[in-house]
Amino acid sequence: MLGIVAAVLFFIAFLINAADIATNDVFSSVNVMLLGLTALALHVAGIGAGRPRRR
Predict the structure, then answer these.
(1) CA 48 to CA 40: how far, in whole Å?
(2) Is residue 51 part of a domain?
(3) What contacts 17, CB < 8 A, 6 or more positions away?
(4) What's the number of domains the chain is made of?
(5) What is the pTM of this model?
(6) Is residue 19 part of a domain?
């Protein structure tokens, strides 16, 4: 799930950068990209992954 979130955030960062959209400091393309990297790192670490139930 976090891998998909990271991909969406990377795409949004790309659109902001490619379209040269003027945004405020909070939603700049670099900040959105860093949020995507954080989500990707959490995904790789196993956080947010579905865990099998043990009986």
Answers:
(1) 11
(2) no
(3) 29
(4) 1
(5) 0.70
(6) yes
Say how far apart CA 46 and CA 55 lie, in whole Å: 21
Is residue 53 assigned to a domain?
no
Q: Which domain, by its residues, includes 39?
A: 2-45
Rounded CA-CA distance 43/41 in Å is 5
From residue 45, alpha-carbon distances to 16, 24, 32, 40 in Å are 28, 31, 20, 9
From first to last of its 55 residues, what are the pLDDT tens digits of the chain?
A: 777 888 888 888 888 878 877 777 777 778 888 888 888 888 888 776 666 666 6
What is the identity of the amino acid at 44?
V
Place of tokens 């947010």: 48
> Domain for residue 33, yes or no?
yes
